[in-house]
Amino acid sequence: MTPLQVFLQQLANGFTLGSIYALIALGYTMVYGVIQLINFAHGEVFMVGAYVTLALILALAALGAPWWLLLLAGCAGAMIACGLLGGVVERLAYRPIRQAPRLNALITAIGISFFLQNALMLIFGATDRQFPAVMPFIRWNIGGVTITLMQLVVWISGAVLMGALQVLVMSTKLGKAMRATAQDRTACALLGIPVDRIIALTFVIGSMLAAVGGTLFGLNYGTINFHDGYLTGMKAFTAAVLGGIGNIPGAMVGGLVLGLLEGLGAGYLSSQWKNVFTFLILVALLLFKPTGLLGERVAERA
Amino acid sequence: MMPRVWCFLSLAVAVFVCGCSQQAPVIKIGFSGPLTGDQAPLGEDMLHGAQLAIDQANARGDALPGLKLELVAMDDQRSPTQSVTVAKKLVSDADVMAVIGHLNSNCTMPASAVYHQARILNISPASSNPQISRQGFDTFYRTSATDDMQGLGAAHYAFHDLGARRIFILDDMTTYGRGFSNEVEIHLKKLGAEILGHEGINQGEKDFAPLLTKIKALSPDLVFFAGMFPEGALLIRQRSEVGLAAQFMGGDGLFDPALIELAGAQAAEGIYLTTITTDITKIPTAQAFVKAYQERYGDIGAYSAYAYEAANIVIWAIQKAAKKDRAAVLAAMQSFKDFPGIFGNANFDGKGDPIGRQIGIFTVRNGKFEFVKTASLQ
Amino acid sequence: MEAPSLRARYLRWAVFAALAFFVPILHPNAYHLDVLTTSFLYALLALGLNLIVGLTGLLHLGYAAFFAIGAYTYGLLNLHAHWPFWIGVLPAAVVAGLFGAALGIPALRVRGDYLAIVTLGFGEIIRIVLTNLEQVTGGPNGLLGIDHPRLWIPGRGIFDFGVDSAPYYYLVLLTVGIVAWICVRLSRSRVGRAWVAIREDELAASCSGIPVLELKLLAQGCGGAIAGVAGAIFAAKQGTITPDSFDFILSVMVLAMVVLGGLGSIRGAIVGAILLGSLPEFLRGFDQYRMLIFGISMIVIMRLRPRGLFGAAQHAKPACKKAPLKHASAAT
Known about the structure:
Chain B is of the alpha/beta class. Chain B has helices spanning about 1-15, 40-60, 80-90, 105-115, 145-160, 175-190, 210-215, 230-240, 255-265, 265-270, 285-295, 305-320, 325-330; strands spanning about 25-35, 70-75, 95-100, 120-125, 140, 165-170, 195-200, 220-225, 245-250, 270-275, 340, 345, 360-365, 370-375. Chain C has a single domain, classed as ABC transporter involved in vitamin B12 uptake, BtuC (Orthogonal Bundle), CATH 1.10.3470. Chain C is built from 13 helices and two strands, in the order H-H-H-H-H-H-E-E-H-H-H-H-H-H-H. In chain C, helix 2 packs parallel to helix 7 and helix 4 runs antiparallel to helix 10 (about 210-240). Residues about 315-320 of chain C have low confidence and may be disordered.
């Protein structure tokens, strides 16, 4: 392989990783935008998505439907499940303590994260689970670079969903309400915008995106483990901060950039140290450019 | 008032934590391995082997008159720190006469020190790192072969049988992985092969595509991975996704059906691995074990047979000691000679390593492990 | 909070100490003692973190790193230079304390949530570095064969702590007592009051002439040093240390202990540590449900008793809510 081919292949690897990070990062960024909470549990929601898809595909496989239908059904089911989960968590755990000190919300989030992780372990077992290999294994060799069908699916789904979210947030009334709530909750309440409902919806949408991220994650790696949520979640959060916390296009850009940095770092420098790179980037960002690449969007407070 | 109540309450809770242990007339044999987590399949298979031996002995009414044998299984989660905690817990139970464990070399290493300090017999069915028996502990024995043998066998097969001349080596940086891969590297270099690189990966990692792409650019004939099956499966699968055409070879850590399941039969087709046994179903003295195990548990795991053997040796030692006493059980091992085990007559050398083990070469064909040959160690 | 008389307070502590002292004699179960020792070790950590999070209000999610640094410092000194425990524990504390202060310097620039994430990042970086630097730290296999503490007892010769539970129990108990006393003195001193002032309103504190930067670093340094001592004891007790013992979950657990006990409360930190520290062992029969129950407990506690068990009295809510992120170096 020529160095150029190697580079292109590493780019492809990084892009795949980045798309998944971006989908999860969106959930973090949206929630932080509206209630300034780092939703630690979001990484586990993403894992729930992966497991629900797995369970659904296995259950439906008996019906003999074509693979893409199984996949869509599994993914849709996961989206519903995660959306519900996100909404329930918000309603039961976060809303009651919205007025409490922020440390409490953080600890609650961590508690939920532990709970979900353990619940997943109990339901699905502690060993690695094989993600059903529904997709046909097709590989293309384009000028020395190997691209798989899987990677294409990840890229395309990621792009479609992010585009859809942008449309939702920018061009619909709901989106406008979400942006307004993120800007100034009190004013929105005064104007009659159902703030609680908007916040709940933010959680739901974020969780649904994470569910898709989970499906793609499972598809891409072929095995999932209840542990995967934590590290991937952390990286996705880094991506959200990288792009500018609260900034939705920022999360998308941040995810892709982080994926590329990680892939290139692992490929050219060292695979062992790649997580250190990620955390160093995170720390450096927070210290020197906390507004991120595209600038943060957090509530202006008096 | 309230705070004081809390103080007492908290102390009381802590003191009566976990209930009191029962005092029943049993002889306990401790067992430790990864029973939860990603390597649980290996640990469970090991447990089954030991359990089978214990149950058979109880059925025969063998051990000591009036005393039943009980296997106390503890989960070390493949964590060295947990292993020390587990070891201390087992050692503090006065009914425990010997310990079978652990599985991972980096767990057995520190735990063996605890067992040595407590003067309790410790037999490992699976830990293959040679350093463990070189610590000079007279309490330590193992029924599995060691990685210096395995490394030699693997290097030999890769060079002579697979014709590999350019090799990239990976390991999972654990005691086992690092030790084993170093052995392989030394022997390959002696044979004259070119080592393109030797890198480590972390257990629990998922994404190896960048690493494998980098390796692909070096055009190796063979990629050797010294590590366990969860990472091995991911490497095998991603190597095929990335289009890395080199052969893939590993060691006994890969020898679990879960490897093929997780990697996908298609990707795993044609990989090779060394094991610390030849094909157990072909060993005449093991037939009774094979039949009994398959009836009860199904497919035989990588370390089931070794755990079975280890348990039987422990039972023999207890019988020889003729009393429920750790020192006596340990001392009994001094007269251990030509034990009729399932691998033939068993003997230990001065360090506690078994004499006469062979290394097997397996491959994956049609989604199943297939025995190829006994490794040549010339 | 009511101020019980000095005598009542000392009486309370004396009773507690006496009870704690007699536990190994009355209930000599090695395993239970070990659990208690571990809980008291957690209490040490909670006391240290309490200085940072409880008194000074700095949200720290990477505390386990200092625990690790203390453990590895003693471990390496012992393995390479044969320093015995009683001497090795000092550099462990100092090195960990220095790291605490050093990592605190960049963290001065950030507040609130961002501080939490920065400290989390540092914690993870240190853990991964310890895992990867195998030449120095032994990598994922860690350091083996670290000496246990040894005492020279007149008339009996050298007494090696070995794997017995009781000696460690007393060692940790004594250390907790000493550190708790230091923390109490600190919290009642000008330094302690200044820390609380920083926690309550940093801008006002700065305006009052309090050297905010230096005190923040001091808090993190002291907290780090205490973790360092705990780390050295842990290393000496286990004989083996591996990086996976010093993960993010440990940092969170210690934070939960401090919050459960009530931010700023010394007593609370100890009680919180004992409760949460022995909980996993208490649930060992329900091994699989451990993290589940732990998670639920955290959620419930935050809901029902957000100030913790011994939480400080309610302070007047500030007239205007503070902004969540102040990353610009405004206050200094």
